[in-house]
Write a structure and sequence with these properties.
The protein is α/β, with parallel strands linked by helices. It is 45% helix and 10% strand. It has helices at 10-15, 22-37, 48-55, 62-68, 79-90, 99-110, 127-140; strands at residues 4-7, 43-46, 73-74, 115-117, 146-148. It has a five-stranded parallel beta sheet.
Length: 167
């Protein structure tokens, strides 16, 4: 069975990133590498919330970012999702001003996606938050997804399991 990956808003955004600082270039290149060469190993899903977030504002790559995910299946937003989002906020899993992040996590968890793919390393792909997320999801009886960045899902061809070890 192929693993399911929820594509969060930052993925199509970084695919078309134009900032020229080294960290932004690296994120863009890792995102493109994963999208162009690895995504076919997974079942991709996203949500109307991602489409809505990408549709906001006026930025040069808006149409390209929307086109990138236009063929990705949308997860349904059922009424239970609202209660999960409220629980995340009430239990400080996500701050009040981060309803979008709470919604992405709720959709991913409710629908049992294996991975939530994001570059949001403050509220989502943050190892310091994982135990809190896991705890609340277990209390709610929800799946606990791996929240990760594209670089962690790259297939590093030529890398060995004993890389860095002395002979």
């Amino acid at each position: 069975m192929r693993k399911r990956v929820y594509i969060e808003t930052t993925i199509p955004s970084f695919y078309y990133e134009v900032r020229s600082t080294p960290d932004m270039i690296a994120r863009r290149e890792w995102t493109r590498d994963w999208w162009d060469n690895q995504r076919h190993h997974y079942d991709l899903v996203t949500s109307a919330a991602v489409i809505e977030e990408l549709s906001k504002g006026n930025y040069p790559s808006k149409e390209q970012a929307l086109a990138l995910i236009s063929q990705v299946a949308l997860l349904p937003t059922v009424s239970a999702i609202d209660a999960i989002v409220e629980t995340y906020i009430a239990h400080y899993v996500m701050p009040h001003n981060s309803l979008g992040d709470a919604l992405h996590l709720a959709l991913t968890s409710y629908h049992g996606c294996h991975f939530l793919l994001t570059w949001n390393c403050i509220h989502l792909a943050n190892a310091n938050k994982f135990e809190h997320i896991r705890h609340v999801n277990v209390l709610l009886g929800l799946y606990v997804p791996i929240i990760t960045t594209p670089v962690e899902l790259l297939n590093w061809e030529g890398a060995s399991d004993d890389a860095g070890q002395s002979p």
